[in-house]
Amino acid sequence: MSAAKQTKSNPVTDATAGAIAGCAARFVVGPLDVIKIRFQVQLEPIAKRAVGLDPTSLASKYTGLRQALTTIVKEEGIKGLWRGTLPGQLLTVPYTAVQFVTLQQVRYFAHQSGISDAMAGKSLSFVSGAMAGAAATIAAYPFDILRTTLAAQGEPKVYHSMMQAARGVVQQHGVRGLYRGLNITLLEIIPYAALQFGLYDTFTAAWSKAHRQRLSAKGRDLQDKDGHSSFERFMCGLCAGTLAKLTTHPLDVAKKRFQVAGLPRDARYGARISQDAVKSLRLCLQQIWQREGIHGFYKGSLPSIIKAAPSAAVTFATYEFVIGYAAMTMANKDQ
Questions:
Q1: What separation in angstroms does the CA of 123 have from each of 197, 253, 265, 307?
Q2: How many Å separate Cα 252 from the centre of its chain?
Q3: Looking at per-residue confidence, does 69 or 110 come out higher?
Q4: Cβ-contact 64, 46 below 8 angstroms
Q5: Residue 118 has pLDDT above 80, yes or no
Q6: According to the per-residue pLDDT averaged within each range, which of 69-73, 141-145, 311-315, 327-331 is highest?
Q7: pLDDT of 251-264, one tens digit each?
Q8: Burial 294-320 (b: 16+ CB within 10 A, else e)
């Protein structure tokens, strides 16, 4: 990221920019997130026909992206596409704020310790991204549980509010229930965040190098362009988010199964995920493989990737805009 400089950044500015960026991205991709969760917690196959499976067991609630979209709107109204928005935003604010603050602070202390970008290469981007993702996940995880629970429940509602969902989870699983699947989430988010931030820095650096080469070939001043345009940040974030999500999606499916295990959803949404199915990550993955095949690991991958790409793009573009605006405002005050 462009903020990976040797000067110390302002944690308050980083937190504010990260929170605004996260909220903007969360609202934009809310419907895709709901559809993704519905796919991930559906034990029946997504496709209407699945090779090698018993045709009598294919009464799937959702069979495709368009069908799921129209079904949710028909049964739950347009508001159904933003189920879990409140806990989702409450998840996003601390998550993105902590993420960006941790990212910049790790990079700052690395530079203070004499570890430069030239010495560390791109490994600093991946390591700082992984640490940022882990810290942000731990800070905001209970809201992730509540967001998933509300988005997955369908109609009739099991819980009518975030507080009711929180009480229900605690009553059923204890306070530890608000952290169900945290270990899997960390196992997923560390490589995801490392790839997202590391690839973003790699792509922006490659873009800058290609731009300098184009200017040099035309005999123009290499300083004609300083920094990256919003379009470049958007496209680099888009590519980074897509590749990161595609790599870690199977763990995301397992995480969602852990989070909603035991949720008493209406029978029309298919078989419920039992507590016995999520006694361990190994057992969960084994059962997905045996009952749903390789496709089970990628349920919801289409809306997930469609969601992750613009989400990362909007997040990075908004973050860089807010940081730039804050820097410009401070510069004007100093004049």
A1: 11, 28, 44, 27
A2: 10
A3: 69
A4: yes
A5: no
A6: 69-73
A7: 999 999 998 888 88
A8: eebbbbbbbbbbbbbbbbbbbbbbbbb
In the block, tokens 């159904």 appear at 80
What's CA 305's distance to the chain center, in Å?
10
Please give the Cα distance from 285 to 277 (Å, whole number). 9
Distance CA 132, CA 269 (A): 36
d(CA 205, CA 64): 38
pTM for the full predicted model: 0.68
- pLDDT score of 122: 61
The pLDDT tens digits for 91-100 are 777 777 777 7
- Give the phi and the psi of residue 3 in degrees, each rounded to 5: -80, 0
Q: Evaluate if residue 307 carries a pLDDT over 90.
A: no
pLDDT at residue number 221:
56
Q: Are 294 and 274 in contact (CB under 8 A)?
A: no
List all residues 6 or more positions away from 157 whose beta carbon is below 8 Å from its beta carbon.
Answer: none
Structural contact between residues 130 and 99, judged by C-beta atoms closer than 8 angstroms? no
Contacts of range 300-303, beta carbons closer than 8 Å, 24 or more positions apart: 300/35, 300/36, 300/37, 300/38, 300/39, 300/40, 300/249, 300/252, 300/253, 301/246, 301/249, 302/65, 303/32, 303/33, 303/35, 303/36, 303/39, 303/65
Distance CA 289, CA 287 (A): 5
